[in-house]
Amino acid sequence: MRQALIRAFLTAQGRHLSGGELADRLGVSRxxxxxxxxxxxxxxxxxxxxxxxxxxxxxxxxxxxxxxxEARLETRRFGRVVEYHERIGSTNQRAKALGMTDAPEGMxxxxxxxxxxxxxxxxxxxxxxxxxxxxxxxxRPPLRPVEAPKLTLVSAVAVHRAIAEVTxxxxxxxxxxxxxIDGKKVCGILVELGMEMDAINYVVVGIGINANxxxxxxPGDMAARATSLLQVLGRPVNRVxxxxxxxxxxxxxxxxxxxxxxxxxxxxxxxxxxTVGRRVRVLSMKGEWEGEAVDIDENGAxxxxxxxxxxxxxxxxxVSVRAQD
Length: 325
Ligand code: BT5
Hints:
The protein is an alpha+beta fold. The chain has helices spanning 2-12, 19-26, 30-42, 66-72, 91-99, 150-167, 220-223, 229-233, 239-260, 263-271, and strands at 46-50, 54-59, 82-88, 108-114, 133-139, 172-174, 178-181, 184-196, 199-209, 279-284, 287-296, 302-305, 311-314, 320-323. Helix 2 (19-26) packs across helix 3 (30-42). It is elongated. Residues 90-92, 114, 117-121, 123, 125-126, 134-136, 177-178, 185, 188-190, 206-208, 210, 222, 226 line the site of biotinyl-5-AMP.
């Protein structure tokens, strides 16, 4: 009901909606409409009521409430079941626990704040209250475990598209899991697998986007390498719109990858790559080496040409790649 009311206000685009009109649209009495409006007001919504004109949504609280998301969703499965947290350790951690239950594919765990947000290889993700999009999507792909890293590229392309759609800003993909604007990190993606025997039981795609992150939230060394959409645009972005858009493109690219293979997503990630064509330093368990990133292969691996001319496929998960200026 709340979601239907929000959707009605969104489509009214700032016009007033009469109690009768809303009652018809929602299929409830005018008194019920009034009660729902009151409940929203208690949650911090500013809703004007003018005699004879009706209700008008003036301002909504800046929160990723599930009904706000649902009112904007254009997906069939992704984001149709949402678990919302004001504060949580890590949305990925929670989504992994859900992965071991019968939680459905496309379920999303979202939080305003993470107190133990995670990056790859035990690193952490700074996740201050209501400043970012911190979300994890549960997938159950019929893929072999070796194919799972390709989902990182699919997710990166989806976030690229969503940022472009909502803000008009063109980000670039730093292989394999970052999105950058002007060489600074604006989003990090963490894909984690749950396996049973030799098969994938679930995949969790964790997405952290610096939407309205203020630079003073990041420690000094990190601040120089990071940015946010707020910083780039000079105004805050609507985080719910951004998440709805991420889910739309993620569902679309994921379904396409499962039906037709990963070629399109890999081709897009190649075209949007900030890494291909650059000199990179590869940090792996076996040591450090340098070369030129020349391509992304059909498995999503980064092809790096060493100075002796030999080309090596670098797989995500085991390495860090640093672009050299
Ligand atoms: C990542 O790891 O970039 C993956 C980040 C994934 C975060 C999401 S949020 C929702 C979900 N739940 C989680 O717990 N995680 C996921 P990696 O490539 O390892 O990069 C981590 C490094 O990025 C850190 O060591 C910092 O240097 C830097 N960093 C941390 N927080 C940042 C931020 N907010 N913005 C930019 N850089 C940051």
